[in-house]
Write a structure and sequence with these properties.
The structure is a homodimer. Chain A is an all-alpha fold. Chain A is built from eleven helices and no strands.
Chain lengths: 237, 237
C-alpha cells in the first residue's frame, strides 16, 4: 500500500534527523519536533479542506486544484503530503472507524467490569462519530470510489472493531451483567445507532453533541439489559 | 415533477379504457386489469434490473443501455416506463422510506396500546429495511445524484416518518409504557438500528431475515423500557 510506503519514508527521514540531532545536541531535537508538528499540521489542514470539498460537492466533482484553492496554496503543496486525490479519500474514509476503534481499544484494556467499560465506551463511541460526521458521511457515499486495497484495509479495521465489541458484550453476558440473545446483532445495533447519526445530527441542532452522546449512550446500555418485567420480552432465552 | 405528469397521463389512458369497457361490457374490464398488471410487472422488472446495476457499478457508471441489456430489451422499452435514468434513481431511492412509512402508517391507525403497536412495528420496520437492502444502500450512496426536487420529496417522506414515530413514542411515554428522556433521539436510534443493516446484513449470512428482524425488534423495545434497576441509569429523569 502506498500509505505504508509514505509512513516508512517519513520514519526514515525522522531517523536520519534524529541521528543529526544526536550529533548536534538536544536543541536539534526540539527543531525536529517542530518540523514534525508543522508537517502534521499541514497534513491536517489539507484533510480538512478535502473533507469540506468532498462533503459538499462529492469526490468525483472535486479536483485537487479546488482543494488547493481553498487553502490558498498550489497543487505541489498537496502532493508533498498526498500522492493522489484517492490517497486523500482513503485517509478521510478511515477516520471514523480509526477514532471509534481507538475508543474501543482504550476500553478493552481498561480495568473494571464489562458494564462499567461499556457505559464509558457507549458515550465515547457516539462522541467520536458525532465529531467525525463529515468523514463518516464521505466514507458511506464514496465506498465505490475507494481503491480496492484501501477498501480492504478499512474493512479490516471494521472487522477488528466488531470482533472486539462482540468480545466485550460476551464478557458482560458471561458475568450476568448483560442479557442478550445474540451479541453479534447487539453489536450491529450499537454500531447502527452511532454511525447513522451522520444522517440526522446537526451541530447547530436542538441538542449539543455532548448531550446527544450522553443520551444515545444510555439508550445503547438499555438495550443490553432489558427490563425483566417487560411484556414484549416473553421470548427471552 | 415529471413523475406526476406520467401518473396523470396513465390515469387519463385508464379513464379512456374504462369508458370503452363500459360500452363493451365487463370482459373488457378484465382485459384492462391485465393490461395494468402487465405494465406494473414490466415497471418492476426494469426497477429490479436498475437496482442490480446501480448497486454493483454505481449510478454514474450505469447506462440505460446496460439496464436494457440485462432485461434483453431495447432502450425504448425502458423509456415507455421511465423518461430518464434519473427518474429511475428517484423511484429506487424512495423505496426504502416508502415501505417503512407504509409499515408505520398501518400501526399508527391500528388499535392497541403504544407498547403493543411498537412491538409489531419494530419487527415490521426491520423486515421492510432488510427486504429493501439494495435500494436503501443506493439511496445513501447516490443522494448527490438525485434531482433536488426528488431529494426534497424523499426528505419530506423521511420527516413524515420521524414525526409519526416520535408521536407514537410520546404516546407510550404519556401512558407510562416507555421511559425515555428524549423521544426524538430514541426515534433516531430506532431508525439507525434498522437503516444501518444495509451495511452488515447478508441474506446468506448466519441468521435469516425473519430471525434478525425478531431480535432487532426486541433490542429496539428494550431501549424504550430500560431495566429500572440498571446501575448505569442513575441519571434517569
Amino acid at each position: 500500500m502506498t500509505k505504508s510506503t509514505t509512513s516508512t519514508s517519513t520514519a526514515r527521514k525522522k531517523r536520519a534527523r534524529k541521528t543529526t540531532a544526536e550529533a548536534a545536541g538536544t536543541d536539534q531535537l526540539v527543531v525536529d519536533d517542530i518540523r514534525d508538528a508543522v508537517s502534521q499540521f499541514k497534513r491536517e489542514r489539507i484533510i480538512a479542506a478535502a473533507v469540506d470539498c468532498f462533503y459538499v460537492h462529492g469526490y468525483s466533482n472535486t479536483t485537487l486544484e479546488s482543494v488547493a484553492d481553498q487553502l490558498n496554496v498550489t497543487k505541489p503543496f498537496i502532493y508533498a503530503h498526498f500522492k493522489s486525490k484517492n490517497m486523500l479519500l482513503a485517509e478521510i474514509c478511515s477516520r471514523g472507524i480509526k477514532v471509534s476503534l481507538a475508543a474501543l481499544n482504550r476500553i478493552v484494556t481498561a480495568p473494571g467490569s464489562a458494564m462499567e467499560r461499556m457505559t464509558i465506551f457507549s458515550r465515547d463511541f457516539m462522541m467520536a462519530v458525532l465529531e467525525n460526521q463529515k468523514p463518516v458521511a464521505i466514507y458511506f457515499r464514496e465506498i465505490k470510489n475507494l481503491d480496492p486495497q484501501d477498501r480492504d484495509a478499512i474493512n479490516e479495521l471494521r472487522r477488528d472493531f466488531d470482533h472486539k465489541l462482540i468480545g466485550l458484550l460476551d464478557e458482560g453476558v458471561a458475568a450476568g451483567e448483560f442479557v442478550l440473545n445474540d451479541t453479534r446483532l447487539a453489536a450491529h445495533a450499537i454500531g447502527g445507532i452511532a454511525s447513522w447519526s451522520y444522517v440526522w445530527f446537526r451541530p447547530d441542532g436542538p441538542a449539543p453533541a455532548q448531550q446527544v452522546a450522553e443520551e444515545m449512550g444510555r439508550l445503547m446500555m438499555a438495550m443490553l439489559r432489558p427490563d425483566p418485567g417487560a411484556p414484549w420480552d416473553s421470548g427471552r432465552v
